[in-house]
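Need UPF0473 protein GCM10008983_19840's 3D structure for a figure. Predict it.
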Amino acid sequence: MALEEKERIIIPDENGEEHLFEVLFTFDVDKTGYSYIAVMPVDQQENEEVEVYAFRYEEQEKDDDLSLFPIESDEEWEMVEEMLNTLIDEDHDDQ
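Structure prediction for UPF0473 protein GCM10008983_19840:
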């Protein structure tokens, strides 16, 4: 499944309730071979501070789904934060 701009995905929480998220960006890290995804809740209010969630993911070829994994190491978090900051800076430059 190729992730496209403004794509939305459903992620269940620990209670099994499903929540709709908008995909902000995805990126691959060649050094580790991992792929990462950053999402935000669709139902977030315009005036609220934006909550962004990030996961390592793997695409499942047979059923076109994603398997999400928590980011556990500080090194991984730093990579994701750096990518997010770069995209935010680029977005501000375009405006």
